[in-house]
Write a structure and sequence with these properties.
With about 130 residues, the protein is mostly beta strands. It has strands spanning about 1-10, 10-15, 20-25, 35-40, 45-50, 60, 70-75, 80-85, 90-100, 120, 125-129. The model has no long low-confidence stretch (mean pLDDT about 95).
Length: about 130
Amino acid sequence: QVQLVESGGGLVQAGGSLRLSCEASGNTFSNMVMAWFRQAPGKEREFVAAMRWSGTNPTYADSVKGRFTTSRDNNKSTVYLQMNSLKPEDTAVYYCAVSRIYYSTADGFPRGEPAYAYWGQGSQVTVSS
């Protein structure tokens, strides 16, 4: 079991920045995959970013590449999603998620929801124009 608690989010103007945090507890290990998804009103949940729990091999959706960065504080059981140059279309509820299944870097990290068994409660991010 892995428990995830999110924090951060809020309201920001277009072009601004926000940082989301996701604290993990329970049976964590370095090779598990940590991912971020988002769900905008009326839309399906979509992949945003993923990396190993160790903080290595980050990968991003094309829509956020160059603007968002996922990282981990190795002194804490917390991962972050730093979101810069935010756009109104980034408005969504953001979720962190964990897969305890091992995926090789060569195969790439999964981008579909079913691969992730554990989810945070979600954080609202609203970007005004």
